Structures are given as C-alpha cells and as structure tokens.
Amino acid sequence: MAAIRKIAFAGIGNMGWPMAANLVKAGFDVTVCDVVPGRADAFAAEVGGRAAASPAEAAAGADGVVTIVPTSKQVAEAVEAMSASLAKGMLVIDMTSGQPGRTREIAAGLAERGVAMIDCPVSGGVPRAKTGQLAIMAGGEEADLDRAEPVLKAMGTSIHRCGPIGAGQAMKALNNLVSAGGYLIGIEALLIGQRFGLDPAKMVDVLNASTGMNNSTQKKFKEYVLSRRFDAGFGLDLMVKDLSIALEVGRETTTPTPFAALCREMWASAAALLGPGADHTAVAKLSEQMSGTVLGGNKAP
Length: 301
What we know:
Blueprint: E1 6-10, H1 16-25, E2 29-33, H2 39-46, E3 50-51, H3 55-59, E4 64-67, H4 72-81, E5 91-94, H5 100-111, E6 116-119, E7 122-123, H6 125-131, E8 134-139, H7 142-153, E9 156-163, H8 167-196, H9 200-208, H10 215-219, H11 221-226, H12 236-252, H13 258-274, H14 284-291
Helix pairs in contact: 1-6, 8-12, 8-13, 8-14, 12-13
Pfam families: NAD_binding_11, NAD_binding_2
InterPro entries: 6-PGluconate_DH-like_C_sf, 6PGD_dom2, 6PGDH_NADP-bd, HIBADH-like_NADP-bd, HIBADH-related, NAD(P)-bd_dom_sf
Active site: 172
C-alpha cells in the first residue's frame, strides 16, 4: 500500500485541533472538517492545510482519514458522510474513545468496500496533544498499523499495539477507569486530611513522594482543584462515557466489576449535579458537597 501523505481530518475540537496541527507541522497534506460552522476555516487560516465544507469533500482523493469525535455514533455518521469519497485502499484511523463493538461493525462495513480501519484512541489530554507527546493505544491489522505509524508518530511519542480492531478503545476505556478511580480516592483522601487539619497542598507533595502518587496527584489536584480552575480541557460527560464503555467491556467478558460500577455511578452523579459543560476535574465538587468542605478553602472541623 502507498504511504499516507494526504489526510482528511474529521473533528477539530479541543484534542483534534492540536493533533491536526501537528500533522500539518510534520508535512502532511491535511484537509480538515468539523460540524461547528467556521471552525475548519479558522484552522486553515491559523494553522495551515485546507478547510472542507463537508466530510465527503475532505476525504476526496485522500490516502487516509483521521476521525476524533465524541462518540462512535458520530464516527459512523462521519464515515457515512464520507461514503462517496472512500476509495479502495484508503485507511480510516479512528482516534475517538469509542465503543469497541461498534467500531468493529463500522470496520466490517468498510472492509466490504476495500477500506481498512484501525482504532487509535489517545491519552495525555490537551497539553500533550499540543506537544505531540500523546500515548496512543492502537488496534487493528499489523499491516494497517505499520502503514499508519508515520501519521501516529506525528501526534504521539508512545504507540502501543494492543491487538485486533477495537482493542485500542477497550484499553483506553480501562485506562480511564483506573485514572477515574485514582482521582476519586485521592479527592476523598484530601478531604479527610483537610478536615483533620492537614494542608491539602502539602498532602499532594507528600503523596507525590510516596506510594499514593498517581496522575491526578501529579498533574491535576494542585493545577485544577486547589486552584479552583477546573479547566483541564476534558469534559466530565466524556469521562462518564468512557467509564460506561469500560463497564460494557466488563459485561461482555462476564467480569465482576463492583468497584468499577460504583466509580462510574459517582462520576455520573457528578455530571447530573454539575450539568452540561463541566470539566472532568470538577467531579471533586461532588465529594466536596457531600462533606461540606471546599478543598483549599474552608477547613471544616
């Protein structure tokens, strides 16, 4: 198969914009499209590449397609919208944190037309999307992953081949399950400590020098919770979606998941409490409300 040089990029949101920008920077011929009116034109004006008015226009003549949208439903819609432009030999690289089962269905439909698909969700958030240092979890045929590797290396520094199509998305959901659980237990520990009389900022320092260290203690608690910023750039609703996918994989594999189920319900409760548009770091407000304590603020007895 020919190397991928011309790329249609669908979905230039918080993550997609810097990822597409890194492809432009790496010298790929990138055409972007997005459901938000004017966003593709803004990208082309600020970053480079070309803007397309529709997914079909973006995919016309492309070697490969990159999709990164909120859900697998939207991936299916984007692929359907590109249908007339998807030619035999093209490769669809889905970087959405999607549902493995649905992705396999989409891939099977594309395969009938001679179009290959791999799933390559990412971890690292907006900061690492900007620097091109994302961790990428990939699923698909080895030959297709080989072909995609130069594209992936322009966006990430750590590429992990997890298995057949859907394996990357399963791994991403399970990664976020571990991350979400660590975040919640860390917040509870900070609340206990603050109510005891400990300084939560000092607690974070101690955790980071001890066995309680995790990604949240390292990169989230001071930056987004104690600062009261709650603006990490990843939506609370998207975390609930990923946790739901992790539990779906658990059900499909008949794996008992009592702690994972509780974790998902707490995040879903926070989403209901805080409403649409909340950042995932704001889940701390659920635990704060239950305890009547604001981290870094009042020191309730």
